[in-house]
């Protein structure tokens, strides 16, 4: 049983993509109930890292993963693991919102319908609750049966957040969730993420340093698939130890 | 310094000789050729499109004598087919076509859907490389060979095994009874052969449709902690539904138009079938079997042309629908 | 966790069904080819492919199906040529010249619809056309009907191939200041040559196996093809007619004929596949 205050331990994670060594000997601990930002220039393996944690990387025939990832002591990688349960407990908010081809209501209810409802709430209550958490309720409460595809991109992304939270994960992985959004929607999403960290461990991949600055409690800096530096946000941003970190944080490359 | 390079004989004279074209003239000629090419090929393309109308018109003209002689309703719903007595009721043939095609779809659609899902979502890349050429092979087999296989394998199978088994267990229901026709030649045989014939095209269209669904949607669903099959059933199929229907419709119209294979195994008795095992007489078989006599009996040729026209219009309608849906989904069949 | 177990069972069951469905189809392929070979091989003889039907062939006397073999070849070669001469320019037009107007969309739709028209309808139309111009059942008539069948197949197959020519290649050709016509023939066709050859073979293979369109229009004869205005035999019809006789020895020959037809189609299929890989001398990767 994975407890609510998940704490992720990564040990010697290596990911190969055909002949490319994408993640090299990654070992880091991600603290519970905090927003951990993974920063670094594009293409250095941040998305691959996220997908390894919730085993979505399995979908890719050409990726080979080795190493250990444990969430609260229970192993994520490896053959005998119940992958669907892992994925329920570790949610993912991707870069581009992909609403399911159903109504707004059904999108949020999708997870609870399949996994069942805990604590005896009704579907209506669950849908309303998570839409509120995502900050979308007021905008859609009149048209819950409308197709989700009709929403704006910003609304779709918040819908995806509500949908992902509705399965009650312990961890929420976010892969550059605001990159497709306009500034106002991005703001909405950021404040929602800040709100949920009290009950979830949030891992946020972002290439917007300012965003990391706004949201992160803990920072991991990845460069070319290697862990360069990690620590509390305050330290990494204001007193970076390694030269690469210093240069990146100062905006010398991105 | 009055001497130019030319006058000093160091460069060939550039004067226009007969047969010699300057660069300008060559370019001009190329442009003309291009324009001509454009116009000609455009004419050909439009001509091909017009061909559809031409064929419909042509058949209509040849079918006109019979269409004029009797009200359409009588032709379509009439149950007697006696060319010698000028009775041309198409109903048994229309129903025969529908029965055989529906049988083919009933067998093919579930199998094709399963197969297409497997090939698009589950199979390792190597599997596709082996299966695709084999499917192409299946699609390329001539229809007489399918008919031959039907006669050699399918009909005896039905006559000796499927028929008796059905009779024993479900024979009291008319639909499953072989009492009227224990020969094995009938709707079931025709439907089975047709099902195998349309399998490749339905699978290939469905597979393309599934592949056109973006990966991000699959990932989004799987990230919620569901099994692959649940993702397929609740998300993929829903999203791809119009395309799946289009694939079925294309297969249906292909089966509808098939001639040789089906005529060899379906029994060719002009009656409204009552059971799976009854013989039937599809429109295509009607035309194929009787083209020899059609010029000797008045109105017979017009009747057969009318059958052809009917087939054309139905296939046209279905195909148009399916192609429009597929184009809307961003996929070309 | 009972739900989990149920899900896993469901997943496994569905997987089995899916693989089973695919295997069933491939099994039918094996059955078909197996039946043709098993029945056809014993009846094969040199006489089958070198002689025409002698007198009394259809009641058991000697002879072969050379008339049908040659007839089919003539029909298919003729029809494929016509389909190529008409289809290649049309495909080039659609890929290189045509914009996105309503007319062009209509043309594409019409071609897609033509692809789906049953070959018996083409046969009936061809027959009507023949009556109009006073042509009797003949090689020429058969070619007309068969080219109608092959044209959409050829057009579609060539279009698919042309689409795969990388846009940068045609772009660089245009950048040298050439016309579309020159680019079409000197660059695109050359690049797409393996694929076009493959398309030709594909259309040929379909054409040689088609019975419904040549049924009315090509007639049938026991003699070798001599003139385009005389009826000509075809392999699919040879199979059909021989199978329809009540004499077992003639039916055996039907199986052998089917074997010949299937073998030809298989060889064409293999050649088509080889063509796309082997003819790549000028092709830019």
Question: Based on the structure given, which CATH architecture of chain B is correct?
Answer: Orthogonal Bundle
For the terminal residues of chain B, how far apart are their CA atoms?
Answer: 72 Å
**Major pleated sheet of chain B:** 2 strands, antiparallel
Number of helices of chain B: 11
Tell me the radius of gyration of chain B. Answer: 29 Å
Task: Characterize this entry briefly.
Chain B is mainly α and 333 residues long. Helices cover 70% and strands 1% of the residues of chain B.
Question: Can you tell me about this structure?
Answer:
Chain A has 254 residues and is of the alpha/beta class. Chain A has a domain at 8-96 and 172-249: Rossmann fold (3-Layer(aba) Sandwich), CATH 3.40.50. Helix content of chain A is 35%, strand content 25%. Chain A has helices spanning 46-53, 83-89, 104-115, 123-133, 137-140, 153-166, 183-196, 209-215, 233-238, 243-249, and strands at 8-17, 20-30, 35-39, 63-71, 74-75, 90-93, 171-175, 201-205, 218-223, 226-232. In chain A, the strands form two sheets. Chain A has a six-stranded mixed beta sheet with strand order 6-7-8-3-9-10, sandwiched between helices. In chain A, helix 7 (183-196) links the parallel strand 7 (171-175) and strand 8 (201-205). Chain A is globular. The mean pLDDT of chain A is 88. With 333 residues, chain B is mostly helical. Chain B has one domain: MetI-like (MetI-like fold). The termini of chain B are far apart. The mean pLDDT of chain B is 87. Chain C has 285 residues and is mainly α. Chain C folds into two domains: 2-43; 57-278, MetI-like fold (Orthogonal Bundle). Chain C has helices at residues 2-43, 46-50, 66-97, 102-116, 119-133, 139-163, 167-175, 180-191, 193-208, 212-217, 235-244, 248-278. In chain C, helix 1 crosses helix 12 (248-278) and helix 3 packs across helix 6. The longest helix of chain C has 42 residues, at 2-43. Chain C is globular and about 65 Å long. The termini of chain C are far apart. Chains in contact: A-B, A-C, B-C.
